[in-house]
Amino acid sequence: MTLSPRKHTVGVDVGGVMVGAGAPIVVQSMTNTDTADIEATVRQVAALARAGSELVRITVDRDESAAAVPHIRDRLRARGVNVPLIGDFHYIGHKLLSEHPACAEALDKYRINPGNVGFKNKRDVQFATLIELAVKYDKPVRIGVNWGSLDEELLTRLMNENAAAAEPVSAAAVQREAIIQSALLSAARAEELGLGRNRIILSTKVSDVQQLIGVYQELARRCDYALHLGLTEAGMGSKGIVASSAAMGVLLQQGIGDTIRVSLTPEPGGDRTQEVRVAQELLQTMGFRQFLPVVAACPGCGRTTSTTFQTLAKDIQDHLTASMPEWRERYPGVEALTVAVMGCIVNGPGESKHADIGISLPGTGEQPAAPVFIDGEKVAILRGADVADQFKQMVADYIEKRFGRGAAASARTAAG
Question: Which pLDDT tens digit goes with each residue over 11-31?
Fold first, then answer.
């Protein structure tokens, strides 16, 4: 099946990362540290960037956090972490950016929620201040509408108009329209204030899968701004993963979305980088990006009573994941590697032939031998208690031979 063509959007440069205009879909994440705690925030940003987050958002909610931002930026750069930083502003963003120019300069993008940028008479003035500061410092802005903090005046007006209509629509439809209008009206106002279209990204987040799909489909139909996708408050564990993947998968397949975030609630003491891995796996599974080598492994059945293949598949997957930050530098192109770890003779040899390197472990009642296939050809039969270690060494040797410096030099010589 051919993927739907990407919807044309205006490109936005966020600290050297292009969002939109046909660029690869960008993975974004957000810290959950107190930004005023400089060391904790630096550690988490570095961890998220190491996991593959290409943009990282941090909360800027008070003077202490605003004052910490340039120090966070500097310490990250000293560590060689150059991931763009996005400031998340609510309620007093205009004040913080005005009073902390070093923060305004250090951030690579500002995120503004038009539903709480200000209320009543102050709203327009404070929104204008934020946009004028973005223009002053030449920073892009994400106008991020969230249905949990939607502009109540706009929603009330649309609800009243709908009630008086000859053929009123559902309350859910009115809410979707309010979300879309909030984003588009705010973007239009930002342009009036001098912010270019190539400095604006829009998002319209809700926590209901069908609502999210409907909102973004209509938003994409009505504008060509770059769009950030995310199911807000997605939840914890498998629920959050499934809901986010279901919603964003539909939109991405339709060519909607230029940057994504999977907003998972971490387990107590859990790993924040999980949201990055899920976002990468979503894009990779759908064929939009390639981040990690693919390990194909069967689910197991009554033919595979041994857990050897399960252990080996996990070992290989964990090893590849842990090694990728270094391998990206050492072995260009290694993310395209495919590995198969299969549990019996039914699909084992065939699946292994399709992979770059694969092993078919013996199932119940089979001979204690494990054929290994490289580039579709059987190259070895492994036996003994250390089959797993033997295969892992073969994977390492294959990576060095195919992606190492020697392979690159040979390719250049052949080309020349």
Answer: 999 999 999 999 999 999 999
Instruction: Name the strand (E) or helix (H) holding 18.
Output: strand 17-19
Say what the pLDDT of residue 262 is: 96
* The pLDDT of residue 127 is above 70: yes
> With helix as H, strand as E and coil as C, how does 270-313 read?
CCCCHHHHHHHHHHHHCCCCCCCCEEEECCCCCCCCCCHHHHHH
Q: Around 388, how many Cα atoms within 13 Å sit in the side-chain half-sphere?
A: 15
Backbone angles phi, psi at 282, to 5 degrees: -60, -50
Q: Both ends of the chain: CA-CA distance in Å?
A: 37
Cα-Cα-Cα-Cα dihedral sign, residues 295, 17, 64, 187: negative
Q: What is the C-alpha to C-alpha distance for residues 383 and 380, in angstroms, rounded to an integer?
A: 10
9-20 burial code (b ≥16 CB/10 A, e <16): bbebbbbebbbb
One-letter amino acid at 368 equals: P
Element (H, E) at 121: helix 121-137
User: pLDDT tens digits, residue range 204-235?
Assistant: 999 899 999 999 999 999 999 999 999 987 77
Average pLDDT, integer, range 41-52:
96
Other Cβ atoms closer than 10 A to 408: 14
The rounded distance, in Å, linking the Cα atoms of 270 and 240 is: 14
Question: In whole angstroms, what is the distance from residue 124 CA to residue 248 CA?
Answer: 32
Token readout for 305 is 């009573």
In the predicted model, what is the mean pLDDT of residues 243-255? 96
pLDDT tens, 152-201? Answer: 888 889 999 989 999 999 988 998 999 999 999 999 999 999 999 999 99
94 close to 126: Cβ distance less than 8 angstroms? yes
Cα 110 to chain centroid, rounded:
18
Distance CA 305, CA 300 (A): 8
The helix (run of H) or strand (run of E) holding residue 259 is strand 259-260
Judge whether 52 and 276 are in contact, CB under 8 Å.
yes
Beta bridge partners of residue 201, listed in sequence order: 142, 226
